[in-house]
Structure formats: structure tokens, C-alpha cells
Design brief:
The chain has 250 residues and is an alpha/beta fold. It has 9 helices and 8 strands. It is 51% helix and 11% strand. α1 crosses α4 and α4 runs parallel beside α8. The protein is globular, with a radius of gyration of 17 Å. The structure holds adenosine-5'-triphosphate and magnesium ion.
Length: 250
């Protein structure tokens, strides 16, 4: 670990830690070439949110967790950045929810798949978690998408009813919604197509969200849906928060 990232008193400790995790994942061959660019876009929005979980994001998190808890076939979809940034935390979440995870990457190569599967299986063993890891052998396709990006497993994403897809791409999110699924996303950018397409949009940083979800589940407060939840309001409140942050800085 780099010196600065190892010092929790540094004001950007969390952010440096996430960058460090990405660097390590990159060395292991887990990431696509654009992974760091996607992360940088996320960081910019996180800065505008004050690098914190805002109240509307916490409500969306609770709503997402309630939907996952009451789903018939919940699945958590993982890409390279998600595994790199919060692989351990996501596997703990899946263990608690008793749901499978599925590796579903945009740029699929056998080497990347092997690196991601290897990393997740190592965590599973170390943490003694009981989680099914899908995605190694896709046998179904998401309708409306071209090429290998449409690949998924029948048992996992294809037949899921509620799907948590952190850091999803906009048109895949749209295609999953068109399949009739309840799609829960985590995306720091309230302007992205993903954010606007999803059933529930958690506008917050991935590792904070997963930590919040794990804590909510442990405290038993997780399965209660938010009364009269409106996703458009969640997005609106993120904009309001950013606008007030900008005017206070100006
Ligand atoms: P879309 O396809 O939805 O219109 P995009 O093409 O701009 O969005 P992608 O590159 O497909 O974005 O995906 C990256 C998204 O993930 C960005 O919107 C970025 O804000 C978000 N993101 C990156 N890192 C994180 C993180 N750690 N936590 C939450 N969101 C993140
Ligand atoms: Mg995109």
C-alpha cells in the first residue's frame, strides 16, 4: 500500500484507498482499459456531493435493500470496478441476502474472467462465505443488446426478478428494465442514463453503499420499504444537494 493511503488521518484516505484498490486490481488483470476513467467520473461527482451519503441516498439504499430482501430471485451483478473496489463487502452482502452474484463485464476476455473469479473465490474462502458465483459460462442473452455485452446466465441475471447492478452502463440498464426486472443501481452521476433508467437509483459511492447495506442488514432495519418511494424525487434531491454545495462554495 502507498504511504499516503495507509494513513487513515489523511483527509482523502477513503478516496486514496479506493484508488489503491484499483491499482492493485489493474496489476492482477481484473480491469478494462476504461476502468480508471469511469472511476474518475465517479470521483468528480462524489466531490460535488461532499464525499458523503446524503439523506435521499440513504432512503434509496433502504428501498433497494427491502426489494432485494423480498425478491424471489435476487441477483447482484458485478463488473471489474465493483470487484476491485468492494469485492469483499459485496460477497458479505450476498451471503447475508442468500443471493448469487454474477460477473457480467463489458469487455469479456478469458484472462479477465479468470482474474475476477480467482479474486472472488479467494475472498470467499478467506471469509468463509457461502455465495454462488455465476458468470463463468453464460448461456443466455439480454434481448436488445449486440455482441458479447448481452451475455449472461439463465440461472442468474436472465431469470432474476430484482437485480442490483452497481456502476452499470446506461443501455444495458435500459435493456434489463425492458425485460421487466426491478433494476437497482448505484451511480454517483445523477445525470447518467443509468441513473435515469433505473427502478431505484442510489446516488452514492459504491463502497459506502455496500457498507451501509451490510450494517442495515445486521441491525435488522433493512427489510422495511420506504413509504411512497419515488425515484424521481431521489434524483431531484441529489441535484438540489449539489446545487446548494456549489452555491455555498461560491
Ligand atoms: P451511462 O452509460 O449510464 O450514461 P456513462 O457512460 O457516463 O453512464 P459509464 O462509464 O458507463 O458511465 O459508467 C461509469 C459510471 O459509474 C459513471 O456514471 C460514474 O459516475 C459511476 N461511478 C464510477 N465509480 C463509482 C463509484 N465508486 N461509486 C459509484 N458510482 C461510480
Ligand atoms: Mg455508458
Amino acid at each position: 500500500m502507498t504511504e499516503i493511503a495507509a494513513d487513515p488521518s489523511h483527509p482523502r484516505y477513503q478516496s486514496l484507498l479506493m484508488r489503491h484498490r484499483l491499482e492493485e486490481a489493474e496489476k492482477k488483470g481484473m480491469l478494462a482499459g476504461s476502468a480508471l476513467i469511469a472511476h474518475g467520473r465517479g470521483e468528480a461527482f462524489d466531490y460535488l456531493l461532499g464525499e458523503q451519503t446524503i439523506p435521499s441516498a440513504l432512503r434509496a439504499t433502504q428501498q433497494a435493500l427491502a426489494l432485494l430482501s423480498s425478491a424471489k430471485r435476487p441477483v447482484i451483478s458485478l463488473n471489474g470496478n465493483v470487484v476491485a473496489l468492494a469485492g469483499k463487502e459485496v460477497l458479505h452482502l450476498a451471503h447475508q441476502l442468500k443471493c448469487p452474484v454474477e460477473i457480467n463485464i463489458f469487455y469479456r476476455t478469458p484472462e479477465r474472467m479468470k482474474a475476477l473469479l480467482g479474486h472472488l473465490n479467494e475472498i470467499k474462502l478467506q471469509e468463509k462465505l457461502d455465495v454462488e458465483i455465476l458468470g463463468a459460462e453464460p448461456d443466455a442473452r439480454i434481448p436488445g443488446l449486440e455482441g458479447p455485452r448481452a451475455n449472461c446466465t439463465k440461472q442468474g441475471i436472465f431469470e432474476s426478478d430484482v437485480l442490483l447492478v452497481p456502476l452499470e452502463d446506461g443501455d444495458r440498464c435500459e435493456a434489463l428494465v425492458a425485460m421487466g426486472k426491478t433494476v437497482l443501481v448505484i451511480d454517483l452521476n445523477p445525470l447518467s442514463r443509468t441513473a435515469r433508467m433505473a427502478s431505484v437509483t442510489i446516488i452514492d459511492e459504491l463502497s459506502r453503499v455496500i457498507t451501509n447495506m451490510n450494517e442495515m442488514l445486521l441491525s435488522g432495519a433493512a427489510t422495511k420499504p420506504v413509504e411512497n418511494y419515488q425515484n424521481a424525487q431521489t434524483i431531484e434531491e441529489a441535484f438540489t444537494h449539489i446545487a446548494s454545495f456549489l452555491s455555498s462554495e461560491g
